[in-house]
Design a protein that fits this description.
There is one protein chain. The chain is 44% helix and 16% strand. With 212 residues, it is an alpha/beta fold. Strands 5-4-3-2-1-9-8-7-6 form a nine-stranded parallel sheet. Helix 1 (21-34) packs across helix 2 (48-58), helix 1 runs parallel beside helix 8 and helix 3 (73-81) runs parallel beside helix 4 (94-102).
């Protein structure tokens, strides 16, 4: 059963790869306060579940906090115990998706081909993460999007920044995962806040009217 992708002010997911638990609250709060409500901590970050737990407890209930690079069903259980509600993966795996459905998580599995996209939807994906989007480009994603169900939420992740919003907007894609363009290890909360504000401003400029 599909858990619907939640209604967010902006369909932006902040990817905090490499963040440390002792800095995650400052950085996560800065991102949230800038207007990005969905935050993922990839599991190849140091003590990722601790960071997720801290964010899930500290941020408002409207925040969508979870993990990226989820590869096993055991990791799904650990994510649930940490209070995470969002599961992002680089691939599509049946066991992971089934476990996520058991915990009623919002899921955004990685896909690259029509076959993978339709498999992900059949397994209950809340949204599709076209990854790496920079390899497919807007034209490649547009070609695949044309054969998908009209209500499928298509996200572009991987090598994407706010500079790409307008091009993707032309093909009807308004969901993005922002990684290194938003956060990189060593950046201060103030620096990340500045990047988040810029991304939010550009998303609003491109999509706010279309969102109504």
């Amino acid at each position: 059963m599909t858990v619907p992708f939640p209604t967010l002010r902006r369909r932006l997911v902040a990817i905090l790869r490499g963040v440390m638990p002792d800095e995650v609250l400052g950085i996560g709060s800065a991102v949230f306060e800038a207007g990005i409500e969905a935050i993922e901590v990839p599991l190849n970050s140091p003590d990722a579940f601790r960071s997720i737990e801290l964010l899930a407890k500290a941020l408002p209930a409207s925040a969508l906090v979870g993990a990226g690079t989820v590869l096993t069903s055991d990791q799904v259980d650990d994510l649930h115990r940490a209070g995470g509600k969002l599961l992002v993966s680089p691939n599509i795996d049946r066991a992971v998706m089934e476990r996520a459905a058991h915990h009623r998580m919002v899921t955004m599995p990685g896909v690259f081909t029509p076959t993978e996209a339709f498999l992900a939807l059949s397994l209950g994906a809340s949204a599709l993460k076209f990854f790496p989007a920079s390899a497919l480009g807007a034209k490649g994603i547009s070609a695949i999007k044309a054969v998908l169900p009209k209500n499928a939420i298509v996200g572009a992740v991987g090598g994407v920044s706010e500079r790409d919003f307008a091009d993707y907007g032309k093909i009807g894609v308004s969901t993005f995962g922002l990684g290194s363009s938003l956060y990189a290890p060593g950046l201060s909360a103030e620096a990340v806040a500045g990047r988040a504000v810029a991304a939010v401003a550009e998303w609003d400029a491109v999509f706010a009217k279309a969102q109504g």
